[in-house]
Design brief:
By secondary structure, this protein is α/β, with parallel strands linked by helices. The chain is about 35% helix and about 25% strand.
């Protein structure tokens, strides 16, 4: 391979990497002014860790402590089968459980016609549920509709 071809190959790789970094950064900047209001059980520490995860991604987070989250979820149409220890409101969407910030950015960029995005349960390795020395569980972020139907959105 000639020197000219090698330089062209590395230049193309560099341009591709720069473009990917720009797209990820642009998504974060575009949604940096988004405010997440997180409703959580008063003494739940993993919820605070999730809030820190999304803050680091650039979101502003307001925390509302509640004694019982179930009536809130019922009032706003959050299906029981996607419930977790906290429910967050972001624009017209509900974010339930330990959803990675990258999945939230994807949701905001794609704007699907759904009620929200959830990581049901409290799985080890999800943002805020990391346990040193334990491998992360495989899990899915799922979209949920107004009628409670779910679809896998991102697999981790």
């Amino acid at each position: 391979m000639s020197t000219k071809n090698i330089i062209a190959k590395y230049r193309n790789c560099f341009v591709t990497l720069c473009a990917a970094a720009f797209v990820l950064t642009a998504s974060a900047v575009t949604h940096a002014d988004e405010v997440i209001t997180m409703y959580k059980q008063t003494y739940c520490g993993c919820c605070e860790k999730w809030a820190e995860h999304v803050r680091k991604a650039g979101f502003e987070v307001t925390v509302v402590n509640m004694y019982d989250l179930a009536p809130f979820n019922e009032r706003f149409g959050i299906p029981q089968h996607v419930a977790s220890c906290h429910t967050a409101k972001l624009g017209s969407y509900y974010i339930v459980g330990h959803v990675p910030a990258a999945d939230i950015f994807k949701l905001l960029d794609e704007k699907p016609n759904v009620r929200g995005l959830a990581v049901p349960g409290m799985l080890v390795g999800t943002p805020g549920m990391e346990v040193p020395g334990r491998a992360a569980a495989k899990y899915d972020s799922v979209l949920f509709t107004y009628t409670g139907e779910t679809t896998v959105y991102v697999s981790h």
